[in-house]
Amino acid sequence: MENMNLEDFSIKLGNLCLKKSTINLYSSLNWLPEIAKVLKQVKQLGALRETCFGHLLAIPKEVTFSTGVMHNLLLRQICKPGVTRKDEFHFLVGGKVAKFTKREFCLVIGLKFGEMSDIFLKTYHVISGGIHDRYFGGDENVQLKHVWEKFMGGQFEQPKDGLKMTLVLIANNVLFGQDLRRTVSLWLFALVEDLESFNSFPWGSYVYMMTIHYLRQGPQFVPFNYDDCEQRPNDDGNDVDDADDGNDADDKDSSRTIRELMNAMSKRFEDIVKKKIQKKVSAMEKGLKKRLDRVDKRLDDLVQPHHQVTSTY
């Protein structure tokens, strides 16, 4: 344990707690070129570029998502008391603290943040003459694959129908990460009928909220506290400089904080192992008791006839 640094320890403990967790991603950027081809044929590609999702068409084809990177990042999750909020993450990477907040998310995805609309909480009513009504008969169980198949057919009753289907497809698959078997979110059918409202919807806020929610489902342990070194006094009474400020010369001053954290992590590790052992022993005891009960019953069955014969005689 003495030769293990903080990050290695966190990874080992995380692997113990996350060994049964998985990361599934159904978002597919490969849809975008196919969508562009169909819209180009019906002369709606320019209209898509002017929407709130238009910039997504510029994403390089080579961009891929690595579940391995995501898994290893979650293993390095920490909590900085007084700093980390419920709607953000902090990670210890290479001895430095990295953060994931609305700011970083907005820089990457480029979607609007703002006051959240409650349209997805309202009771849904099929809009007469809308794409949900005309193409799918108002069915509440329209799967994403049905919209995709209808869209790829390229036969649209009205000029903007292809654009509206595109926005529903991008929202459900590319942004929400839902696979083709999932039912389309009904509120999208209502929102897409008003393109101005669709474009002004705070998609960044909504998708960020979803991202945080699902990432929180991953770790099955509480992230360890990582005291903010910038506000933590050292032994001589002076403030300790931030360990992730780029100045490595003063990082040694935070060794006390690291030692305390290591001790806390060690105790947590021991508690987890102890609970697992206790659970295993308890299961073994229950299994052994059941076997002994079966043996006792078997012995009683063997001895009982002898007693009956003796008493009769």
TrEMBL record:
Residues 226-255 are annotated as: Disordered. Residues 236-251 have a biased composition (Acidic residues). InterPro entries: DUF1985 (IPR015410). Residues 83-212 form the DUF1985 domain. Pfam families: DUF1985. This is DUF1985 domain-containing protein. It comes from Dipteronia dyeriana.
